[in-house]
Amino acid sequence: MSVEEIATVKSEAPEGRERKLVIGVIVIGLALALPFIDSALRLNLGTKLIPIGIFIILALGLNVVVGFAGLLDLGYAAFFAIGAYTVAFLTSPSSELLRALGAPPIDFWLAMVVATAVAAAFGVILGAPTLRLRGDYLAIVTLGFGEIVPLVIRNTPQWTRGVQGMNPIGTPTVPGVQFGVATEPWYFLVVAIVVLSVVLTARLRDSRVGRAWAAIREDEVAAASMGVNPVSTKLFAFAMGASFSGFAGAVWSSYLQFIDPGQFDFSVSIFVLVMIILGGLGNIYGVIAGGIILGSFDRILADTISDVLQTIGDATNIELLRQADVNRARSLILGLALVILMLVRPEGLFPSARRKMELHAAEESEVEAAQQRSTLYETQR
Amino acid sequence: MLGTFATLTVLTAFGAREGGATPWFGLVVALLVGMVFCGILNVIAERIAYRPLRNAPRLAPLISAIGVSFIYINIGLFWRGPAPVLYPDILPTFDFVNDGLGIPSLVRFTVKDLFVVALAIPLMLGLAWVIKNTAIGKAMRAVAQDREMALQMGIDVDRVISYTFLIGGMLAGAAGLMYGLYNNNTNFVLGFTAGLKAFTAAVLGGIGNVTGAALGGFVLGLLGSLTVTYFGAGWENVGVFAILVLVLVFRPMGLLGEETGEGR
User: N or C: which end of chain B has fewer CB within 10 A?
Assistant: First the structure.
């Protein structure tokens, strides 16, 4: 048994593991049954569930960067855009790149792999020079990068068709399944990728590099002096996060069949960030929960609430309610959510145990902490 | 963004309209109202959203700040709607080079340009003076260097930080008036790039250095304009952010800054 395996077994007690497995199976079962429930109840959620799923993939990827490695990335949508545009370049009949090369559109799956690799490469390119910087500086640089990418897309219409956007885009090929207007195949594809992402990120977290991320996040100097190479460890986190974003982008562009730079602006990065902070930084299940809560609010509940308010307004003749549109207050709600979360529950709704400890340790003074440690020691004896 | 909106409201109240006469008194009132409005808003935001997080990990106040900026954006959206807002062109169109000196030239230096320079320079000098010579400025520098030590020396850290946010907000309000009068339009997402550019300028010049910030802003503006001239209007922000990345990578202390230990 290798050192990593021992650590993994130790970190999760057998019962905890079993319980997690049962919950996981139930959640996956529910997710798989959802389209059938949807069609039985005629909720028409199909088209809304897929974007939510794709955003959950994004959230899982960003969780690697922000949650595991503690690097605040505010330009995450840039990698999403890079993934989406790479697939569009390689599979769209309207792609100028293919025209210039004189090549036919390539298969979606291959394009998706390329998109993932390209996004990861950009993660390294952005990360390499900036990772020596401390937290808030890194955040600003990634923010700038997130701004640059859509701008470059806008400004190079000869390749990207600029604000006109690109379409159509190649679809996945699976024998016997038609990826077209019907939402079910897309839904199952997204669920499969979410499950795969969960397994991947969970394995990463418990691996040697995952523990290195945690060490760097908590104390970079101490980690470095224990032999963890901060630069390569952080770079790997950046590349991993970017690659998740890259293949989320691939599925996104293929599902929508149309992409333009407006789909990848700053608010997307923040939306995903709020998802993982709401759910609980660093906790994979919390991140998924945050994604589902925020995604369903954004795609389903906001419209429903607006409709309800407008109906009340029509009935009671109150002009303000009649014109109510929750979507107009979207950034207000996002902003309030961020501030209130930071003030009230910075660890999110479903925090990882370690993150909770970190965030609350800072509130206590050294003396109190020492006192608590000593009482804890005594009760243990 | 809120600075442009607030000053626009005051100017409109003083009867400013496109191409109309210049309400000089209104301008002064607008400047004061804009500065006070933004200053107080900033202090309130600090009290509610940042102060409770003072001892939290670094990411927490940063995330909270992003939240606050989103709230501002939405306030702007509710206030003036999503479309770009016209800011009346009320300054005289007199051009000192062509009209004043009588030299026919492509170079122009209009009242508008003079207005921006004439307002910005006293503000910068005033800020430098406050930070260098007043008790509160001295306290600010102390808090920036070592908050705990400043506290031990009897400095009321909360009060000093409140003042810092007040001054910062007031300068942003003044900048709002200048931006609006110079560009004659504003919109509700203006502050996002403006904030990024301000940060870039401050980093470029050297964080914590007023002269550096002024120099950084100047250099950044020049580089931005050159980018527009040589690459096209769409590339300006690309150029600005590229500069930000390059500065942070190669000279994190900025052009005039000293090693603060922040950058590395």
Answer: C
